């Protein structure tokens, strides 16, 4: 049978099975920062279940653990790389104060 005559048959490819991101021994907890940090984007957002390859129950537990860690200040709510420095607005107000005096 020619390949053009069988358009809907899938080619046989070997798939390498991916390891689950959470092993059975790992405990999902707000104190386990090495585990939690794997499921947060660079911006500090919680990654989706499809990206994480987690089960629904695992994703719920991860989400709860991340939120608890944020409330307890173990994780930032936003992950901004820029440190707060003196901005131009504070420099402008300082300049106005000297002119007024």
Gyration radius, in Å: 25 Å
Overall helicity: 25-40%
CATH topology of one domain: 30s Ribosomal Protein S18
CATH structural architecture of one domain: Irregular
Strand content: under 5%
Determine the N-to-C terminus distance: 93 Å
> Order of helices and strands, N to C?
HHHH
The largest pleated sheet is described as: none
* Structure summary, number of beta strands: 0
Name the CATH superfamily classification of one domain. Answer: Ribosomal protein S18
Tally the helices.
4
Main structural class: mainly alpha
Structure, described:
The structure is a single chain. Helix content is 37%, strand content 0%. The chain is mainly alpha-helical and 101 residues long. The radius of gyration is 25 Å and the shape is elongated.
List the helices and strands and how they pair.
Blueprint: H1 33-36, H2 49-52, H3 56-71, H4 88-100
């Amino acid at each position: 049978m020619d390949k053009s005559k069988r358009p809907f048959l899938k080619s046989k490819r070997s798939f390498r099975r991916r390891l689950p991101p959470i092993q059975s021994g790992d405990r999902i907890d707000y104190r386990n920062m090495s585990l939690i940090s794997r499921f947060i984007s660079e911006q500090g957002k919680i990654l989706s279940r499809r990206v994480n390859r987690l089960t629904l129950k695992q994703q719920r537990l991860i989400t709860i653990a991340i939120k608890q860690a944020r409330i307890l200040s173990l994780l930032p709510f936003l992950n901004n790389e820029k440190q707060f420095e003196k901005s131009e607005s504070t420099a402008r107000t300082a300049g106005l104060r000297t002119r007024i005096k």
